[in-house]
Each structure stands twice: as C-alpha cells, then as structure tokens.
C-alpha cells in the first residue's frame, strides 16, 4: 500500500464493507453451534487462552481481515517498529518500548545503535539503588530507613505503574517482598490529591520519586515543589538530596531542583509516556516497593508477548487477532466502544491504564500523512472488575447499545478463600459469572423462551434479550508479576495493530496540547487578577463570566499567601 493511500480505498476494505451485510444475517446463537468454527477461534500461547468465537465473525470474516492486514502492510509495519525505524513520523522518533524488556543479550537498534545495553545499564542502576534503600543502607536525613515512597507523575507516568502496583499488591510473592513498605502515587495537581497522598506519612521515612522526562510538566513540577516544601519544612533544605530522586533526562533541571543528578534515572525519546511502564518510570518505584527480582519477572512476561507478536503467524497471534477484531467492530460493524472486564479485583486499575494507551494512541482523525479519515478510528474504552460491573453498567450492555466486551479471567486466585459447606469457593463463584456473561450476551433470551416460562405478557418485551452481542474471553493461568507483564504487552501491541491497520500515528498525542496552552493563558490571568487586580480580558463572554465568579467567590485568598500545606 502506498503511504499516501487510505486503507479505506483498498479492495480488502471494500470487501469487508460488503461482507457486513452477510454478517447481519447471522446470529451468534447459530455461529456458536458450529463447533469447528469455535475450535478454530481459540488460540493458546504461554499459558494464556484466547477465545474469540463470540465475535460477530465467520471464518470468511477472519480471512478477509488477514487480507486487510496484508493491504495495510501490517507485517512490514511491525518489523519497522521492532527495527527501530522512526515510525512516529510527526515527532521523528522510533517506538521501542519492546527494548525496555528485551533480554540482556538482545540486539535492538535505533539510529544504528544497539539500545539494549543502555536499557540494562539503567535497570542495573535501579536494582542497585532500590536494594540500598530496601536494605536500609541508604537512609534519610535523620538516619531513619526510607520505608515509604511517593511517585509523582501524571498520565503515562502514573496510570501504568499504578495498574501494575495494584495488580501486585495482593500477589503472595509481592506481598512478602513489600512487607513493611508503602508506595503511593501523586498525579493530580488538585491539592486534595496531595493531602490524601501524604496523610499518615512521615517525611523522615519518605522517599519522593519525581517522574518527568523534561522536568517541566506543569502539574508534576508543582506537585514536586509542594512535596519538596513538605520535606524542607520538617527536615530542612539539605534533606532534599536524601529524600528526593528523579526519573528524567534533563539532568540540569534535576540538579537545579536540588536532586543529585547521580540519583536521576534515564529513559529515552523512543519511549512514549503511555508505553513507559517498563522503563524507569514504572520499574524504579515498583522495584523500591517489591524488589527488582519481582519486577524483572514482570518484564519477562512482557518480553514473552513481544516475541510472540513479532514472530507468530497472524492466524495464531493474540495481539494481531485482537487488533483486527477491534478494527472490524469499530470501522465495519459500527461499535465505537469497548468494555474491559477483568474478573479479578487485582486488575481494578487495568481499564483506566488501557483507556489512556488506547484513546491517546488511536484517538486520531487524520492518517499518518495528515489526510482526514473518511471512517471512524479509535475506541472508547471503559471498564470495571467483575462482578462489580454487572451491578453497574451491564444493563446497557445486555439490553441497550451493543458494546463489544473483553472478559479477562484468572484460573488461580491470588488470595483463595474456601468456606466449609459452601457450594463453591469464592473464586469459583466469581468465575461462574466470567463464564456465564459472554454466553448471556451472545445467546440472549427470546420472547418464545419467556412465554414458555409463563412470563406475564406485558413483561415479555422488557425481559427479552436480543443477544448477538460480541465479546472475547482471555483466560490467564494466574496473576503473578509475569502474567501482569503478559497482559500489558498484549494490549499495547493490540492497540498498535489497530493503528497500523487504520494508517494513523498511534505514537503521538497532539490532542493534549491545545488545552494545556489555553490553561497557560488562564494561569497568567489568575495571577494578574489576584496580585494586581487586573481586569479579565482576552476570553469569550462565557469564560470571562466563569473566571469572574471564581475570583469573586475566592476573594479571601491573599495576593501573596504564605506557604500552606494540607492539614488532614
């Protein structure tokens, strides 16, 4: 496919458009009765089982999707990513998060240089430093061990590490490694987030990790200055070097801030923020909490999927299959959303992380060449762990809009509970719902079935389930650090596949810039109005009215207030 050609102009795209009419004549009740079809739509790799037989798709559909992949040069684009080519063309950068979890002896090049040794230099430095902190050989300004860590960062510097931390908090090996330690994340510039984060913490035993590639991110640096003041007010200015470290590439600003540049951990411009959890952004705070050996297993799990993605034929390639099916649901069947439904509370922060990875990557309206797309791209992602979600939004999924669902189950619970005399264990109760919900969505319930059950006639339409609602099921053997890494990489690569097919740049994020630049204007106005009484100007009537009300209602804030920290 020529680079300037839209994928929607290709014959395989047009064939799939025509094929939609054939699919509309089918129902999942009938498709699932074909055992050969169902068998062919099951894939297993490294302990993970994917079943996509509940997709509104036939074997002909998948063949047509593979032809679409060929037309989109999917294999070539995957190779270009792994080869370190500058596929992020708008920022002229390589996209090499796979290098972050590559084995030490791997060779992955960017601009003619093998970057893997650089990655491992940082990993070795993280291992060494985190072990010093965890063993008590690195102590705070008053000689006390640093048992508590606050990681300051936002977006990709927060959501990914938080997802992994939450997933490991209840995992037996990780629990043992983290005993006596706490890890908290400070992301929002809202002072309430600061208050909640530092409540119950003692500056004497707290290490603050400031995560900002450029050391200029507005929210992150304001929060960093706030926690620096929290430390200084308790321990004095000299304590900063003992209680604050950085994940950044801007060593000059790190030093100016008061942090020893030797205690700054690097990452590279070929690491996108939302793909950075396997860099020092995530590995450093997670190693401080759980030890490097646990985090290394997480990296190995991700690496396993990286190799699978790169080498496995598309017919049995889990991320490729999931990506192609997402394109089918969004651009052909017209389903813009996706529900991510992990049946384990340990993955409660997984959907919010994938929300960012997916929607920031693929929420684009133009092709990689800047041509407006004549079709919808990107998915609206949301989700909650089962069974909580069942008592929240499943009503809409069953009887309202059609929303394709990802059901994620785990064979072995991190924390099994057995009660004598119960019909099933707590985990079996959970998994009963994991197995039942996809079938309920697929089969539904017909008016005839309801009439046979003697349902009152006036309630039949209310209790009818149309069914034919697509889902995939992903079954993990357990949820240890390795499995968490696998799951992360599956979704990262799935999202890249979608972008490669749509012909967009999944690795830039210009859409986040405009609001930030407008906020700069507002910030200047608020300062000028509070300190000099200057009138509000340069905004439309609506914004002027809102700012005026805000300033009038908060007129008791002094023009030059003394330093005040949260009090809880």
Automatic annotation (TrEMBL):
<dbReference type="GO" id="GO:0006096">
    <property type="term" value="P:glycolytic process"/>
</dbReference>
<dbReference type="InterPro" id="IPR018189">
    <property type="entry name" value="Phosphoglucose_isomerase_CS"/>
</dbReference>
<keyword id="KW-0413">Isomerase</keyword>
<dbReference type="GO" id="GO:0097367">
    <property type="term" value="F:carbohydrate derivative binding"/>
</dbReference>
<dbReference type="GO" id="GO:0004347">
    <property type="term" value="F:glucose-6-phosphate isomerase activity"/>
</dbReference>
<dbReference type="GO" id="GO:0051156">
    <property type="term" value="P:glucose 6-phosphate metabolic process"/>
</dbReference>
<dbReference type="InterPro" id="IPR001672">
    <property type="entry name" value="G6P_Isomerase"/>
</dbReference>
<keyword id="KW-0312">Gluconeogenesis</keyword>
<dbReference type="Pfam" id="PF00342">
    <property type="entry name" value="PGI"/>
</dbReference>
<protein>
    <recommendedName>
        <fullName>Glucose-6-phosphate isomerase</fullName>
        <ecNumber>5.3.1.9</ecNumber>
    </recommendedName>
</protein>
<comment type="subunit">
    <text>Homodimer.</text>
</comment>
<dbReference type="InterPro" id="IPR035482">
    <property type="entry name" value="SIS_PGI_2"/>
</dbReference>
<keyword id="KW-0963">Cytoplasm</keyword>
<dbReference type="InterPro" id="IPR046348">
    <property type="entry name" value="SIS_dom_sf"/>
</dbReference>
<dbReference type="GO" id="GO:0006094">
    <property type="term" value="P:gluconeogenesis"/>
</dbReference>
<comment type="pathway">
    <text>Carbohydrate degradation; glycolysis; D-glyceraldehyde 3-phosphate and glycerone phosphate from D-glucose: step 2/4.</text>
</comment>
<comment type="similarity">
    <text>Belongs to the GPI family.</text>
</comment>
<dbReference type="InterPro" id="IPR035476">
    <property type="entry name" value="SIS_PGI_1"/>
</dbReference>
<dbReference type="GO" id="GO:0048029">
    <property type="term" value="F:monosaccharide binding"/>
</dbReference>
<keyword id="KW-0324">Glycolysis</keyword>
<dbReference type="GO" id="GO:0005829">
    <property type="term" value="C:cytosol"/>
</dbReference>
<dbReference type="InterPro" id="IPR023096">
    <property type="entry name" value="G6P_Isomerase_C"/>
</dbReference>
């Amino acid at each position: 496919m020529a680079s300037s050609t839209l994928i929607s102009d290709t014959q395989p795209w047009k064939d799939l458009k025509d094929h939609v009419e054939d699919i509309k004549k089918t129902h999942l009740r009938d498709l699932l009765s074909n055992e050969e079809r169902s068998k062919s739509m099951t894939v297993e790799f490294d302990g993970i089982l994917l079943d996509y037989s509940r997709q509104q798709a036939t074997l002909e559909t998948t063949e047509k999707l593979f032809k679409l992949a060929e037309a989109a040069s999917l294999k070539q684009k995957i190779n270009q990513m792994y080869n370190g080519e500058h596929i992020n063309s708008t920022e002229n950068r390589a996209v090499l998060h796979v290098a972050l979890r590559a084995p030490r002896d791997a060779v992955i090049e960017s601009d003619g240089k093998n970057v893997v040794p650089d990655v491992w230099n940082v990993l070795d430095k993280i291992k060494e430093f985190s072990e010093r902190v965890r063993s008590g050989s690195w102590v705070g300004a008053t000689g006390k061990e640093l048992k508590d860590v606050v990681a300051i960062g936002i977006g990709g510097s927060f959501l990914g590490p938080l997802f992994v931390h939450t997933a490991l908090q209840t995992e037996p090996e990780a629990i043992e490694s983290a005993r006596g330690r706490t890890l908290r994340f400070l992301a929002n510039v809202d002072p309430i987030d600061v208050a909640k984060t530092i409540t119950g913490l003692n500056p004497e035993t707290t290490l603050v990790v400031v995560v900002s590639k450029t050391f200029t991110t507005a929210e992150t640096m304001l929060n960093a200055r706030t926690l620096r003041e929290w430390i200084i007010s308790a321990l004095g200015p000299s304590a900063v070097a003992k209680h604050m470290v950085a994940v950044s590439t801007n060593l000059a600003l790190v030093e100016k801030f008061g942090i020893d540049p030797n205690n700054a951990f690097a990452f590279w411009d070929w690491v996108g923020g939302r793909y950075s959890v396997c860099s020092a952004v995530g590995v450093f705070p997670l190693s401080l909490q759980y030890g490097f050996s646990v985090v290394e297993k997480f990296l190995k799990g991700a690496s396993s999927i990286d190799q699978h993605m790169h080498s496995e034929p598309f017919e049995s390639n889990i991320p490729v299959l999931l990506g192609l099916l997402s394109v089918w649901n969004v651009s052909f069947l017209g389903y813009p959303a996706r529900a991510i439904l992990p049946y384990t509370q340990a993955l409660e922060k997984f959907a919010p992380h994938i929300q960012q990875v997916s929607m920031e990557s693929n929420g684009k309206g133009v092709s990689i060449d800047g041509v407006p797309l004549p079709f919808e791209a990107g998915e609206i992602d949301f989700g909650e762990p089962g069974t909580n979600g069942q008592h929240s939004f499943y009503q809409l999924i069953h009887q309202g809009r059609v929303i394709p669902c990802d059901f994620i189950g785990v064979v072995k619970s991190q924390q099994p509970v057995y009660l004598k005399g119960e019909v099933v264990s707590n985990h079996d109760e959970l998994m009963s719902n994991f197995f039942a919900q996809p079938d309920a969505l697929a089969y539904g319930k017909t008016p005839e079935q309801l009439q046979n059950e003697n349902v009152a006639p006036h309630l039949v339409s209310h209790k009818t389930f149309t069914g034919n609602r697509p889902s995939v099921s992903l079954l993990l053997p357990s949820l240890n650090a390795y499995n968490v890494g696998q799951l992360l990489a599956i979704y990262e690569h799935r999202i890249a596949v979608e972008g490669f097919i749509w012909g967009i740049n999944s690795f830039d994020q210009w859409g986040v810039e405009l609001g930030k630049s407008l906020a700069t204007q507002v910030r200047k106005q608020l300062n000028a109005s509070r300190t000099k009484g200057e009138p509000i100007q340069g905004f439309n009537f609506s914004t002027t009215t809102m700012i005026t009300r805000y300033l009038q209602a908060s007129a008791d804030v002094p023009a030059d207030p003394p330093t005040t920290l949260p009090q809880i």
